[in-house]
Amino acid sequence: MSHECIFCKIAEGKIPAKIIYQDTDIVAFHDINPQAPVHFLIIPRKHLKNLLDVKDVDAYVLAKMLMVASDIAGQLNIANEGYRVVINTNRQAGQSVDHLHIHVLGGRTMEWPPG
Ligand code: 5GP
Ligand code: ZN
Questions:
Q1: Has 101 been annotated as catalytic?
Q2: How far, in Å, from the CA of 50 to the mean position of ligand 2?
Q3: Which of 103, 68, 108 is nearest to 86 (CA)?
Q4: Residue 91 carries which DSSP code?
Q5: Please, which pLDDT band fits residue 3 given cuts at 50, 70 and 90?
Q6: pLDDT at 1 exceeding the cut of 90
Q7: Residue-level pLDDT at 2
Q8: pLDDT (tens digit, 9 = 90+) per residue, 23-82?
Q9: Rounded to an integer, what distance in angstroms lies between the CA atom of residue 55 and that of residue 45?
């Protein structure tokens, strides 16, 4: 998928991003158009379109994404005040990049329910 997928290209280092953390399974980087004072994304290196693509074999990587989200939230000082994790799935929910990613947002008060 890397020939057409922007997040595969970020994971492969073929286009630049402000990387916060990476390992053999996942990459975390700052969103290019932040919607909060802190807004970063975490992706699996494996190309999955969205949550509907996730299978049993991917469970470990999904859990790691969530745990690393917590670790980075702590490092970026948004954990105590509060942060939000969002996974947009398909168009009506706002998914615009078809490579699974979790948004982590913090540093401001969040509205509920979201718009
Ligand atoms: P979605 O709308 O699919 O839930 O989220 C996609 C997110 O990716 C958006 O928040 C958008 O700003 C971000 N994004 C899109 N292209 C790039 C890029 O090239 N680099 C980075 N760092 N973020 C991107
Ligand atoms: Zn991809």
A1: yes
A2: 10
A3: 103
A4: G
A5: confident
A6: no
A7: 61
A8: 999 999 999 999 999 999 999 999 999 999 999 999 999 999 999 999 999 999 999 999
A9: 15
Total count of residues recorded for the chain: 115
Dihedral, CA atoms, 18, 92, 87, 25, nearest 10 degrees?
-70
Going along the chain from its start, the domains and CATH numbers come out as 6-106 (3.30.428.10)
63 Cα: distance to centroid of ligand 1 (angstroms): 21
* CB neighbours of residue 78 within 10 Å: 22
Which ligand ends up closest to the CA of 97? 1
| Confidence grade of residue 115 (pLDDT, cut at 50, 70, 90) | confident
Amino acid code (one letter) for 5: C
List the strands of the sheet with 83-86, edge to edge.
Answer: 19-22, 26-30, 38-44, 102-106, 83-86
Which ligand neighbours the alpha carbon of 53 most closely? 2
